[in-house]
Amino acid sequence: MEEKSRVQELKEVRKKHPRVKKDDKVIVIAGKEKGKIGTVLKVDSEKGRAVVEKVNVVKKHARPGPQTAQGGIIEKEGPLNISNLMIVCNKCAEPTRIGMRRLEDGAKVRVCKKCGEPMDG
Ligand SMILES: [Zn+2]
Fold first, then answer.
1. How far is ligand 1, taken at its centre, from the CA of residue 111, in Å?
2. With contact defined as beta carbons under 8 Å apart, do 37 and 25 qualify?
3. What torsion do the CA atoms of 108, 113, 115, 120 make, to the nearest 10 degrees?
4. Domain ranges in the chain?
5. Separation of 16 CA from ligand 1 center, angstroms?
6. How far, in Å, from the CA of 120 to the mean position of ligand 1?
7. pLDDT recorded at residue 60
């Protein structure tokens, strides 16, 4: 029984989160960064969070170290909730939902639901 509910849980997580991957172009659709567009730098699918280039930049005080010789303030992107992101299609340049399509060789690709073009490669 427990096993079953775990599967159900995973299915729900998958349904809720768009299939965001590293290097995808995304737009923020909710929250204080709404409307900003950037490239995904990192995805934490377990936590449902992603780091997007130049979005949700937070200033951090840094101690002097190898990367910040002087110390001081560094700017770093903070993680965003993946459910607040929507993928922007490279082909039609519109925020879009992602569909899956099975190719003739059996491989699955992500496709733009607006223009039908594959999102990868
Ligand atoms: Zn498209």
1. 8
2. yes
3. -30
4. 2-88, 91-121
5. 21
6. 12
7. 87
Q: What tens digit of pLDDT does each residue of 55-104 get?
A: 999 998 888 877 667 778 889 999 999 999 999 998 999 999 989 899 89
Q: How would you classify residue 54: left for phi > 0, otherwise alpha for psi between -120 and 50, otherwise beta?
A: left
pLDDT tens track for 18-31 = 578 999 999 999 99
Q: 91 C-alpha to center of ligand 1: Å?
A: 5
Question: Residue 120 pLDDT more than 70?
Answer: yes
Interval between CA 59 and ligand 1 midpoint (Å) = 35
Fold of 2-88: SH3 type barrels. (2.30.30)
pLDDT of residue 11: 64
What's the 66 CA to ligand 1 centre distance in angstroms?
43
Half-sphere exposure of 83 (CA within 13 A, CB side): 8
